[in-house]
Write a structure and sequence with these properties.
Length: 179
């Protein structure tokens, strides 16, 4: 048998598995950062973050500013159309937002006019207004129209003055009126 010499065709043949074994794995690329790389992208991201913080602050402030409304609406649900309790609740709600000098001394038609001036309606005229005035001093039958008018006033009246920290602290110390 003849031996093949090195360098002949028999030794130079390579098979596919031999070629695959010679492959070198490609280098792994560096991880791509998800943070913005350009100054414009960074400034846009900063602007979006500042806008989100501002909107969250405004929402929180609006939520805190209207806490008295939520408390009044919760109390209104518990008084069940009682004109006396509704009259007291409307007075307390008005005192929470408007200066005491402006609200505390109002009675009769002046009180009803004040309520009607502070929101986009005039539901406290006629029978509803009379039920509110009488309910504050005498026992009256339940009045669903008065409760609906009070609910609408509490939700939509214009709060021209924000409650101050002194007013809210004084109200926290005031006893709650139960129906």
């Amino acid at each position: 048998m003849a031996q093949t010499e090195p360098g002949t065709a028999a030794n130079t043949e390579t098979t596919l598995p031999d070629l695959i074994a010679q492959l070198v794995p490609p280098p792994v690329p560096e991880a791509i950062s998800l943070w913005p790389q350009t100054p414009l992208a960074r400034s846009l991201l900063a602007g979006v973050l500042l806008l989100a913080i501002y909107l969250a602050w405004r929402t929180w402030r609006h939520y805190r500013k209207n806490a008295y409304r939520r408390a009044a609406l919760n109390t209104l649900r518990t008084v069940e159309n009682n004109p006396g309790a509704i009259a007291e609740l409307l007075r307390r709600t008005a005192l929470a937002v408007y200066p005491r000098q402006q609200v505390a001394g109002l009675t009769g038609a002046a009180w009803l006019a004040f309520l009607n001036r502070q929101y986009p309606g005039d539901e406290f005229r006629g029978d509803v207004g009379e039920a509110l005035l009488r309910g504050a001093y005498t026992a009256c039958p339940p009045n669903a129209a008065l409760a609906a008018a009070a609910r609408h006033w509490i939700r939509t009246h214009k709060a021209t003055i924000e409650p101050s920290a002194d007013d809210s602290a004084a109200q926290k110390g005031a006893p709650e009126v139960s129906p």
